[in-house]
Design brief:
Elements (H helix, E strand, L loop, with lengths): L1 E2 L2 E2 L19 H7 L3 H11 L20 H20 L1 H6 L4 H5 L6 H7 L2 H8 L15
Antiparallel strand pairs: 1-2
Length: about 140
Amino acid sequence: MIDEGEADWKVVTIDAEDKWAPFLNDIDDVETHLPGTLNAIREWFRTYKIPDGKPPNKFGLNERFMNKTYALGVIKECNHAWKELITGEKDRKLALHDEEVQKLVRKLSKSNLLELAPEEDKQDLLSLGQPLEEDDAALSF
């Protein structure tokens, strides 16, 4: 989705305990077993900010829903970028650029994120060195 001019990834998932979970293993299964659901999801994301006076959101990728393999790639890429940001790696790389470029980057420190995080999420933030788990059951589409 393109939200206010920026890429804003959305991942369609299902609870592993949901009665439909055994039938929905990838995005094409949704249209097969629950026709119209993907169109309804797209339209909700397109229009949900209109009541706030904002324009409809737009979509990239020709408005297609991408498959599980594509989604997992996006999740890994975003996870990597997030880790770089909060561990300071992004800042270290940024230091190689001139001051004008550095001013364009919003700086967040790991300690600031820990202050903002709910207590139950702090352990997750502290364990950043751990690899992203690849649990297909938790990422059913």
